[in-house]
Design goal:
Helix content: 40-55%
CATH superfamily of the largest domain: Phosphoenolpyruvate-binding domains
InterPro entries: ICL/PEPM (IPR039556), Pyrv/PenolPyrv_kinase-like_dom (IPR015813), Pyrv_kinase-like_dom_sf (IPR040442)
GO molecular function, one term: catalytic activity
Structural class: alpha/beta
Largest sheet: 9 strands, parallel
CATH topology of the largest domain: TIM Barrel
Number of helices: 12
Pfam families: PEP_mutase
Order of helices and strands: HEEHEHHEHEHEHEHEHEHHH
Strand order of the largest sheet: 1-9-8-7-6-5-4-3-2
Protein name: Carboxyvinyl-carboxyphosphonate phosphorylmutase
Shape: globular
CATH architecture of the largest domain: Alpha-Beta Barrel
Radius of gyration: 19 Å
Organism: Enterococcus malodoratus ATCC 43197
Number of domains: 2
Length: 276
């Protein structure tokens, strides 16, 4: 059942992509992380496929089941009041109909957006026609469910380093335009790119552009000036947290407890934080 509240969240999220201002979209991996980002003032969050996989003790890459992902989405949307977009990789299905059905279950679980990507585990890209069919099926789903959820179509051209610089630009631009024409609301092009590459991609693709935080260009003002609409942070937050957890576990194994004893986020403070 799609509630009016969920439809309103979807409208708010869609409007964020139509604004002239760039927004930062934190990627979350469980209920607690989503709650923290909402409490710290973010207007929307998105899941990280890698983050959920790590949180469940697996590597990234559809090693977890769709049911695992669905359960996490249900739990997050039941706790937060801001929009949640879901990264469901290639759709967790072999056929277009399976992908459409999985997307339907995510929306019915409370999501108001989804990422659908074209990258394959072997480093290749899905055929453009197949990815276009998936996007068109998601557009049909919007009409069937009566909710304008955001379709974020991802091309992994730069992420998988497909070809030389000229080829990557040509392929990413062509795929971005094909996906936008098919009905995608935003084009996601993750990878390490400098501002010249980002600016050219933006000029080549007349649709809202989503990039991922990276070391080559991370000046928020510059990215907004270029025309980037949505900035994801990917698995960076969850990797930061687990890196700290690994260090803590190593310290504890060596009888070093000072970081735990000196932690100022006390039991009382933690309860108060998650209570309000």
């Amino acid at each position: 059942m799609i509630s009016n509240e969920q439809k309103e969240r979807a409208k708010r999220f869609y409007a964020m992509h139509q604004s002239e201002k760039m927004f930062v979209l934190p990627n979350v991996w469980n209920v607690g992380s989503a709650y923290v980002f909402e409490k710290q003032g973010f207007k929307a969050v998105a899941t990280s496929s890698a983050g959920i996989a790590y949180d469940l003790g697996h590597p990234d890459g559809e090693d977890i089941s769709f049911e695992d992902l669905l359960e996490v989405v249900k739990r997050i949307t039941a706790r937060i009041s801001i929009p949640l977009s879901v990264d469901f990789e290639r759709g967790y299905g072999e056929s277009v109909q399976e992908v459409k059905e999985n997307a339907k279950r995510l929306i019915l679980a409370g999501a108001i957006g989804c990422n659908i990507e074209d990258g394959l585990p072997n480093g290749d890209l899905l055929p453009v026609d197949l990815q276009v069919e998936k996007i068109q099926a998601l557009v049909e789903l919007k009409q069937e469910l009566g909710i304008d959820f955001v379709i974020n179509a991802r091309t992994c051209t730069y992420w998988l380093n497909v070809g030389d610089d000229d080829e990557k630009m040509t392929v990413a631009s062509a795929r971005g335009n094909a996906y936008a024409k098919a009905g995608a609301d935003c084009i996601f092009i993750p990878g390490a790119m400098d501002e010249q590459v980002i600016a050219k991609l933006k000029a080549n693709i007349p649709a809202p552009i989503n990039i991922i935080l990276n070391g080559e260009c991370n000046d928020f003002d510059k990215l907004e000036e270029i025309g980037v609409r949505r900035l994801s942070v990917g698995s960076a937050p969850v990797r930061y947290i687990y890196n700290e957890t690994i260090k803590m576990a190593s310290d504890l194994a060596n009888n070093e407890v000072k970081p735990l004893i000196d932690n100022t986020f006390t039991y009382g403070k933690a309860n108060e934080y998650f209570r309000t």
